[in-house]
Amino acid sequence: MKFTRGGLAAVLAGVTLIASAVPLKTDVAHSSVSAVFKQMNVPVESKFKSFNAQIDYDAAHPEKATARVDIDTASFDIGEAEYNKEVAGKDWFNSAKFPKATFVSSAIKPAGAGKLAVSGKLTIKGRVQDVTFPVTIKPEGGKQVFEGQLPIKRLAFNIGEGEWKDTSMVADEVVIKFRVAAGQ
C-alpha cells in the first residue's frame, strides 16, 4: 500500500513490520517517517511525504514478523521548494537514479513487554548496511502503533557528496524516526 502524508515524517528512516500471520492495513493519517539532523549545529527535523508501509504482525508470534519500508527519496520536505530540489539532486539523495530508500528486516525478536529488536538491511543510494534498532509497540485506537528510531551516518550512504562531505555544515549523524499505525 502506498500513501502520501504532508510534512516530513519518515527515511527513511521508517518502518513497516511484515509478519507472516495477520496482514495489517497502515493508517496513513497516523503514520510518519522523518529524519533528524544538525545543520550548522542546529537540530532540524524533516519529513518524507511519501512512503510505502506494509505490516503483517501477530503479537502471539512476533519472531515470525518481517518488515519492509520503501521511502520515496524525492518526497523529503525540508520546508522550502528550492532546498527540497537540492536534496533530491545528485549530491544528496540523487532521487532520479535512486528513487527509493528501503529497509527489509532479516530478524524481529521480542525484547520485553511492548518491545522488539529489529534487524535488517537498509539501502540508500545503492549502498546497503546491516542495522539493528529497537521498536516499541502499543495499542492505540484499535490499532497497533510501531515506533522507533534508527541512527545512521549519512556519509556511509554517500548522502552529501562533494562540498557536502564537510560535516561542519551538516552533521554526519542522522536519526530516522518512524511511527506506523496499523490495524485490520
Brief sketch in words of this structure:
The chain is mainly β and about 180 residues long. About 5% of the residues lie in helices and about 55% in strands.
If you had to describe this structure to a student in words, what would you say it looks like?
- The chain is 4% helix and 55% strand.
- The chain is mostly beta strands and 184 residues long.
- An 8-stranded antiparallel barrel has the order 3-6-7-9-10-11-12-13.
- It starts with a strand and ends with a strand.
- The model is unreliable at 1-21 (pLDDT under 50).
H/E element sequence: EEEEEEEEHEEEEE
Name given to the CATH homologous superfamily: Lipid/polyisoprenoid-binding, YceI-like
Residue share in helices? Answer: under 10%
Enter the CATH topology name. Lipocalin
SS-derived structural category: mainly beta
Keywords: Signal
Protein name: Polyisoprenoid-binding protein
Signal peptide: 1-21
Domain Lipid/polyisoprenoid-binding YceI-like: 23-183
Helices and strands in order, then pairings?
Blueprint: E1 2-4, E2 17-19, E3 23-26, E4 32-39, E5 42-48, E6 50-56, E7 65-72, E8 76-77, H1 81-88, E9 100-110, E10 115-124, E11 127-140, E12 143-153, E13 170-183
